[in-house]
């Protein structure tokens, strides 16, 4: 019975199997096989000379080679986390290079490693494919402007942190999951004190259903231009405010000098603004002279926001299918400011290069290899050169709409953006007294 249950769980509900049987078995397997696996994977070093000499003098067997010392073995929600102290002569790259062999030897689904500090390496092993059915952990570390947006292949949570990485670019072929990723961002930002601004040139089909939580929306390039120019004005006002707050004198301690909105006292701090742009190419394409002028003004405004917006609390989140120099001048300049890069499935190397060519060349290959059937799978990198395979939970439009309606009262009023506030009818009250709605019966 137990074996049958375990088999059934493993097949249908790998996450439950892991929590009930898998984790114990895996920990035992790692502990029992550790020394021999490390030896087979070439991760051992010969014993020190003094021990060899001692063995020779006392006429005993020469001691074995030594694997890295286990500092900690932690069972986790999706796998096992192993912390190793390397022996002299080993380096973190040895462990990273052996990760595929370790994966097979310990019978795990995935193994990744990273160096924690000099000589200490953390090996994260996952017991099953965590990205197949994404389930976010119940306990998440939420801080202002930090959104748990997706799950990483090693089982940890991927955060989109606007304070450390102000602007982001999301690329991907059509139907690859860009809009779902963006929807997750909106759902994560909705409960926070932040103004959301949306530009969705697909006639607003993605963002307008979420209108109740948005402070400004545009669904065509003309409105988008006015909206972006209003944002530039807003940015200048915020800088005026910061200037007025500075009043630096010798007596002001260093920590109290304001250079961005987060240094201002909370009661006078302007609300941060996240600008979400879906299908950015629509803003950069033109067919006539008039449209070309409009396009240049739009791109100029975007570049200015990307270059100067961070300290004023304006963050850009741009989505598109391609984002390269073929969209005209100013695009690569804008791209250089978008630090956080995410690429969903792309069809060719040049598209992947637009996301990662200039920061992490090996991520380009990983982005091309994403299979078409696992939509939502993406590669996310940053300027440090590191990248992760991530997948956002599948938030349906209905769930996102419900969340936005729930937090509609948190939509802040930004005076500069007031003309673009979407007009929405009042929510139908859930509890209308029956007597008022029931038709009068004679
Ligand atoms: N993280 C995910 N998990 C599961 N399914 C997903 C995920 N992301 C996307 N999908 C599926 O892929 C479909 C297309 O996603 P989405 O609309 O986000 O694509 P897109 O990249 O925005 O496409 P387009 O460029 O045409 O707008 C969704 O309807 C959904 O069924
Ligand atoms: Mg889309």
From TrEMBL:
All copies of domain FtsK, residue ranges: 154-353
Domain of life: Bacteria
Xref: InterPro entries: FtsK/SpoIIIE/SftA, FtsK_dom, P-loop_NTPase
SUPFAM superfamilies on file: P-loop containing nucleoside triphosphate hydrolases
The keyword Transport belongs to this UniProt entry's keyword annotation: no
PROSITE patterns linked to this entry: FTSK
Positions of ATP binding: 172-179
TM region positions: 15-32
Keywords, alphabetical: ATP-binding, Membrane, Nucleotide-binding, Transmembrane, Transmembrane helix
Protein name: Conjugal transfer protein TraS
Species, as recorded: Streptomyces fradiae ATCC 10745 = DSM 40063
